[in-house]
Amino acid sequence: MNRMATNWEEIKKRLAEVIKGKVVILGVGNDLRGDDGFGSLLAKGLKEKVKGVIFDGGKSPENYIGKIIKERPDSILIVDALDTGSSPGEVTIREPEELRGEEFSTHHLSLPLMASVLQSETRAKIHVIGVQPVRIKFGEGLSLPMERVLERLRKTLIEILAEV
């Protein structure tokens, strides 16, 4: 199990490398299920604060495929809580094909399948920002580690997207 803390300088550098041109950010998650709401809450925190199109896909991100395609983005970031077995709050940035089957997401359509459809329809570069949840239980808000990551990632994306 990976016990390394998120290196925010590396995350910022990687995001600056992958975010190019017109950007769409799709937040994924059910904010009624604790840390699973991470992506959705990030999307809500970025709306009207960044250059780019922000969608809160909630627990049914597949409903936004058509809207994302209409935007004709160059870059798509999908943000979700992903159980990778790493340390709580650990942030990873991956291409969709790097996601392994054992990584748990609670959504109807798998992220790799959704990304495949988006890639074939838009030719955009797609990356998944995954954050290791602490707990995914109904009726609980974000855990403290996830709250900290949420704020740090929100600030980092605002900074990077101001330069795009």
What features would you describe in this structure?
The chain has one domain (8-163): HybD-like (Rossmann fold, 3-Layer(aba) Sandwich). 40% of the residues are buried. Helix 1 (8-18) packs across helix 5 (144-163) and helix 2 (38-46) runs parallel beside helix 5. Helix 2 (38-46) links the parallel strand 1 and strand 2 (53-58). The protein has a five-stranded mixed beta sheet with strand order 2-1-3-5-4, sandwiched between helices. It is globular. 36% of the residues lie in helices and 18% in strands. The protein is of the alpha/beta class and 164 residues long. It starts with 7 loop residues before the first helix and ends with a helix.
Summarize the structure.
This protein is of the alpha/beta class and 164 residues long. It contains five helices and five strands, in the order H-E-H-E-H-E-E-H-E-H.
CATH architecture: 3-Layer(aba) Sandwich
- The spatial strand order of the largest sheet comes to 2-1-3-5-4
The N- and C-terminal alpha carbons lie at a distance of: 35 Å
Number of helices: 5
Helix content: 25-40%
Please count the beta strands (DSSP E, at least 2 residues each): 5
Task: Write the CATH homologous superfamily.
Answer: HybD-like
Q: Tell me the β content.
A: 15-25%
Q: Report the sheet with the most strands, covering strand number, pairing sense and barrel closure.
A: 5 strands, mixed
From the spread of the alpha carbons, the general shape counts as globular
By helix and strand content, what is the structural category?
alpha/beta
Q: What integer is the average pLDDT?
A: 88
